[in-house]
């Protein structure tokens, strides 16, 4: 088992620009340290406002060991809580989405209002004070339809990310979109291997034949996703549409627009739009918008749909990848889009990435593993992830 001192020592041996020492990818004690000291101090993409309809709608998910609950209150406000009862700590809501009028613990029926206040606790003594036993809140920030949450107070200031990203996201009106499809894939790999893979396209041209039809896989390793020769023309075209290109970045986030391959409208099997009622209508191809946050998410929005990828740690060598496809709420399944066309490319890409991450884990677990160097250009975003991680881990200590 690794003690705090061991973690400090190990972190000291981690070289910038290199993969981490082996225990960071497979050791239960390091994983436990991250789940208590790194993840809770970060902003996690938890879902979308459109997933929480009328008051009482909830979304429940577990990140690492932490069960979480998002609920829309009677006042329409979306609140986040630890999904842990204040009686004897049972998990209250099962994972998934649903609707309730009160939040009732299944164990002894302690009952909370939608704002987290405890309103009923049968058979407790008469002088028992309901106040002081409300659900523990988590911090929530809404960004143009996206819901980010932080489990504990020392998470970084959200304001710079909001200020930079909101103007990019606003034209897609994700607040009024709908989740057309959602998938969950379990990967037998540490969450950081999953994320390192998600932060580069060094592997894409050989591993993602479907993705590379539309996505500029050779130019997407850095903050700026572009073939330099086409960039000036793209920037000018976007300027005429009133769309900034960026990129803009902070230590734990980045956002920017990019051109897709020539003549391509969206990431689909043949590059043609797959949703007839778009999120953002434009006369010419507008490329993609990417926004990504450490530790665990990236999203792309195209004219016709948006795609979310979130890696949720499950164990030292297990990660759940949640993907969501958002379309305009006017778009009708079977009329304006089919799930198959909408999801084909990212589903193949996700499964290919699962195999890559699991294969990476097998190699990393062996006696022969030594931290290796990242490619400066092609793995710029992995280097950023690695820099963020080492800094966050030191802060967590
Ligand atoms: S643990 Fe929830 S009511 Fe007892
Ligand atoms: Fe990939």
SSE diagram, text form:
Layout: H1 4-13, H2 23-26, H3 28-37, E1 44-48, E2 57-63, E3 66-72, E4 78-82, E5 96-99, E6 103-104, E7 111-112, E8 118-120, E9 137-143, E10 146-150, H4 159-169, E11 177-187, H5 191-198, H6 204-207, H7 228-240, E12 248-250, E13 253-258, E14 288-293, E15 297-301, E16 306-315, E17 318-328, H8 339-364, H9 380-396
Antiparallel strand pairs: 1-10, 2-3, 2-5, 3-4, 4-9, 6-7, 7-8, 9-10, 11-17, 12-13, 13-14, 14-15, 15-16, 16-17
Helix pairs in contact: 5-8, 5-9
This protein binds FE2/S2 (inorganic) cluster and fe (ii) ion (FE2).
Fe (ii) ion (FE2) binds at residues 197, 203-204, 207-208, 349, 353.
Structure description:
- The chain folds into two domains: 46-150, Rieske [2Fe-2S] iron-sulphur domain (Rieske Iron-sulfur Protein, 3-layer Sandwich), CATH 2.102.10.10; 159-391, Naphthalene 1,2-dioxygenase Alpha Subunit, Chain A, domain 1 (Alpha-Beta Complex).
- The model has no long low-confidence stretch (mean pLDDT 96).
- The protein is globular and about 75 Å long.
- The protein has a seven-stranded antiparallel sheet with strand order 1-10-9-4-3-2-5. It has a seven-stranded antiparallel sheet with strand order 11-17-16-15-14-13-12, with helices on both faces.
- The protein is of the alpha+beta class and 397 residues long.
- The protein has nine helices and 17 strands.
- The chain starts with a helix and ends with a helix.
- A hairpin with a 4-residue loop joins strand 15 (297-301) and strand 16 (306-315).
- The structure holds FE2/S2 (inorganic) cluster and fe (ii) ion (FE2).
- Fe (ii) ion (FE2) binds at residues 197, 203-204, 207-208, 349, 353.
